[in-house]
Amino acid sequence: MLARIEVALKPELKDALGEKLARRMREDLSLSVEACRTVRIYLVEANISREDLLAFASGPLCDPVTEIYSVEKPLAPRFGFDWLIQVGFRPGVTDNEGKVAKEALELLLGRSLATDENVYSLTQYLIKGNLTQEDAERIARELLANVLIERFWVVSEKDFNPEKGLIITPPKVTETHEIKVEFFDLSRLSDDELLKLSKERLLALNLREMKTIKEFFTSNKDFLSLRQKYGLDHRITDVELESLAQTWSEHCKHKIFNARITYTDKVSGKTEVIDSLFKTYIRRSTEEIRKAKGERDFCLSVFVDNAGVIKLNDKWNVAMKVETHNSPSALDPYGGALTGIVGVNRDPFGTGKGALLVFNTDVFCFAPPDWDRPLPPRLLHPKRIFEGVREGVEHGGNKSGIPTVNGSIVFDPRYLGKPLVYCGTGGIMPAEVCGEPSWKKGARPGDLVVMVGGRIGKDGIHGATFSSEELHEGSPATAVQIGDPITQKKMFDFLLKARDECLYTSITDNGAGGLSSSVGEMARESGGAELDLEKAPLKYHGLQPWEILVSESQERMTVAVPPEHIDRFLELAQKMDVEATVLGKFTDSGFFHILYQGKTVGLLPLEFLHEGVPQLELEAVWVPPRLEEPVLAEPEDCGGILKELLSSYNICSKEYVVRQYDHEVQGGSVIKPLTGVKDDGPSDAAVLRPELKENDGLVVAHGICPKYSDIDTYWMVANAIDEAIRNAVCVGADIEHMAGLDNFCWCDPIQSEKTPDGHYKLAQLVRANQALYDFTTAYGVPCISGKDSMKNDYLASGLGLAPENNPFGVGVVLPDGSLKISVPPTLLFSVLARIPDVNRAMTLDAKKPGELVYILGLTRDELGGSEYFRLKGFVGKNMPKVKASSAYDRYLRLRDAIYYGLISAAHDCSDGGLAVALAEMAFSGEVGMVVDLTALPYEGEKRPDYILFSESASRIVVTVPRERQKDFEKLFSGTVYALIGETVAEPVLICRDEKGKAVIEENIFELKKAWQAPLNW
Amino acid sequence: MAHKQVKVIVTAGYGTNCERETAHVCREAGAEKVDIVHLSELVYGEKRLDDYHLLCLPGGFLDGDHLGAAKAGAHRFRYAKVKGREERLLDQIINLIEKGGLIIGICNGFQLLVKLGLLPGFNGNYTQRLTSLTYNDSGRFEDRWVKLRINQASPCVFTRGLKEMFLPIRHGEGKFVVKDDEVLKRLKAQNQIVCQYIHPVTGEPTTEYPFNPNGSILGIAGICDETGRIFGLMPHPEAYNHPTNHPRWRREEIKDPLGTVLFKNAINYIRENLL
């Protein structure tokens, strides 16, 4: 039977969620909404008695103190409404609330539900207000539901049946296809037909790759005769084709980073051939740094595992990984971001023998949330993306019990086409696990392939390439996945126990490419694998074998369990309520052997699978953009400009987001994201104690400055690396024990009709990598892990736009009248460092009046790409150039100054320059500052606005207690630094020019107000 | 002397996530035996709740809080039976209480206590639901530190000798509500209101945001039962286990007592009364 249970907060209680939504209907959609209340709906499709149904409703579903419930009869009339909007998931979409309700029902009944029994959750929104049907539908579409994954119903009060309510069918997956394996005879296909096949099956393989596969399946005699033994012939199966496409994807093989690139620099006139950016610049840098460090090398596992691993001390290692989840977040911001964070959790967890996760980071790039121009087709409003992503990371991080310790948000209109969602996770593992180094792993022949965690559905097959039009009622929504942090947490609890009982030899996560990727990768450790797809537990019937292989259903890990431990492993899993299934075994056959119903459906040599992809050959040409320095009148009022800068989206307070993230669960927080007298100043970096019994600390920081990409990506990268390191050393990180992670988010850099500027975009990538090599080696900060996302473009064809008339005000119009929006080339550089004693950690807030204010480092006339120029509508040309050797020396001395207790505050100068840094230190500490700009070491045109707002790199403002002045100055003697002022009791920020005139004289509380205003939602 | 051990159980699993730091503060506070026990070990009868003197129900998201904070979790304690027996997990808790044991529920653990009816426990009835914790007035999850006043007239054994505390809250459903005025009156009369959010300027209990972060009635942040041995609170004492946890440790001389003190009091009580 199908029954409906409704639960709502008692009418006399405030419905905070409803009120929050009502506010957004008014503010974001400009609709006259008076009120909104919410009702939770549970559709119970199960063979149970009326008595049990009532017990279910009144027990786990309804809180007798705060809620009311009803069975069958709707609650809506009790509250009154003008419009009722009901939202529920499409078939096959992860319904976490429904799943928990189902488990609760099973506990109540004392039995498991049958396969045709289930519980589904929905939400009703009861809206009061003078709205048209169209308005109500807009609320549903633009605020409450995402049609990619959800269905919605809109009913007016007059059309609502107060007795029966809204009767709907449950979102059950009803599709039943014939299960079959398809065969393709590539030898008979022409080039065009090969490409067509690639396109139709969404394989994303180019012609050369398709031909390489064709060649291998037609000419390799030994291979073909072996295939016959297993009942296959020269035709490739869909299972094999999909597995190859997955393994050879840009995502897994980083084809652009491994391409052979002919790079011409039109400035120097030189042409060179680069055989793999990754090997030439990234890996080589790390190798050289490790060699130079010799015995002091702290790297343990770099670039080979799911995360990079370094040594923290003799007892603990640390693993860290940063990933992006951009396309899914563009389609479904909440689910995409949630999956992004819980997905990256599995990377350090699946590194070495497995790590205990101790922190998350997140960095978002969005278009400005006050976007008021038209939106190109299919795109969501940036505020909706912002809120969805924020909430996704909130639920993913908070519910996993991992503190979100560090992050930032960058705004640029070009992120309208594709938001960037970077999620990072770090974990610790004991130096040794079961008598072996914890960072090592290795499946052995004979070990069993065991899949642990969630079940397999059609989620995320082929990533996010399906469009909404292709979905129909009853077909599982595959486009987007929704993570379930609790299922994952249960799995992690179990696997850590299994790790410590030495029950497995290797572990990896199921993310992109699913089993194909996880088992295919682990097979390299033993030398082969045999996988029986039929044994895989499924969410619902009807999956083709190839779908089981490449599905990206969440919350799954694959482990290698020696046969002698399998009984204990499965017993422990069952006990801890975690699904674990043996799917095959690891071998040393040299093949990835895939079976279904006892038949071989795939037989791929590991070498071909992993090494067979042909290298791309690409061309890059660097012609510097023609840019000029703007002619700006010297402003009268630098204080006013400072306030405007503080109120710009890139600089303003992000407290609204930070507060909604748990940043101190696990009890080890030392420097929180917010600090100062009122706990709301902006920390430069995070410090935490991962092991509560010890004083060893971890420092986590990052740098990101896509704004410089319009001038030169070489210096963009130099500045991002410097910013990350600068932030870390400001809180006391030891630069000699610091590692980096590089995450590139680029626009498509391959020349084509759709990308006429591909040569330039690829040159931007080459230069970025050159800088990565130059500056990581200069600072001795090795990259230990990284990732690239290379297709961050939005393309809308058929718009028939004229090049000179782009109504959207962002992106470029291509010759065929389509609109293309490419993100600015963006590198996120994250750092992970050690601080030997957390009691030494430093913060940015000025501590008390009467202390001395110093600047470390030289300021130059470098305002190209600055926030000041942006405010005035310019990009400029003279961007900050990083001088690494002097900066490195400065960072070492700063470390000593902090450890010796010579300074009382440190803050880096970045967006908005010196003026913003001073303001933040002053208002966070509620201490005034008086500064003399003539004392400042400066090169270039001497204008107060330039001095105050230049964003020259590697500069740090510190405050020094007077009694420490001598020691401090001695430590910094011989470097560029200056005493520029002092802290005062009066709450003012005063900056004087050479004539003694105050070019800034502002009340610090007013400055703070300006800084807090923009995102004070 | 092995038999003189103070034994503490910290529950884990199904979305609980503060078990490590909660166990850490119990050890720091001097407990000889501190076990982190997965609920499955209880269900399989490998460990028993009533074998311990102090039960800590730590923070987290039991079953994802998907049906409302700790609701599915409470349902689990009420219905999950120890394998091969008719005994429920809730029965073991009641037994622990009858043996004179102590319980502290923090955040999700507090939500669990009220949703099981273990609090307020009027007349020793530990299954009656008279109070609850619901969505913050802001409609948001928030992480912020709050000032608390401790009711020195309260029978609560955990807070003995404490006047004020400064602790972090990290929740989306922490607004304390009561079934009716009678319940509130009785809580007040019996001094079961243990801690309240206070305004930093007036020092008085407040409903003003953000000092009262969730809109709790009378600024109630934690309550105990009539015996003072069962205590639930939304703030996280275990997250203030080291001076550097304090958000202003870098700039001020810190006078706020560590959250560890609550556990020291409990352990002292156990030594004096239960060993």
From TrEMBL, chain A:
> Taking every annotated instance into account, which residue ranges of this chain make up the domain Phosphoribosylformylglycinamidine synthase linker?
196-255
- Give the active-site positions: H251, H325
Name the positions where Mg(2+) 1 binds.
E323
Instruction: Write out the GO cellular component annotations.
Output: cytoplasm
At the top level, the lineage of the source is Bacteria
Binding-site positions, substrate? R346, Q481, E552, S553, Q554, S789
Q: Which residues bind Mg(2+) 2?
A: D347, D509
Localisation = Cytoplasm
A GO BP entry? 'de novo' IMP biosynthetic process
Reactions catalysed, as given in the entry: N(2)-formyl-N(1)-(5-phospho-beta-D-ribosyl)glycinamide + L-glutamine + ATP + H2O = 2-formamido-N(1)-(5-O-phospho-beta-D-ribosyl)acetamidine + L-glutamate + ADP + phosphate + H(+)
The record ties this protein, via InterPro entries, to: PRibForGlyAmidine_synth_PurL, PurL_linker, PurM-like_C_dom, PurM-like_C_sf, PurM-like_N, PurM-like_N_sf, PurS-like_sf
Family affiliation: Belongs to the FGAMS family.
Its protein name is: Phosphoribosylformylglycinamidine synthase subunit PurL
Q: What organism does the UniProt record list as the source?
A: Thermodesulfatator autotrophicus
What are the top taxonomic ranks of the organism? Bacteria, Pseudomonadati, Thermodesulfobacteriota, Thermodesulfobacteria, Thermodesulfobacteriales
From TrEMBL, chain B:
Any single GO CC term annotated in Swiss-Prot or TrEMBL for this entry? cytoplasm
Keyword Transferase in the entry? The reply is no
User: Looking at the keywords, is Plastid present?
Assistant: no
Q: What's one GO MF term for it?
A: ATP binding
Q: Which domain of life is it from?
A: Bacteria
SMART domains documented for this protein: GATase_5
This one is known as Phosphoribosylformylglycinamidine synthase
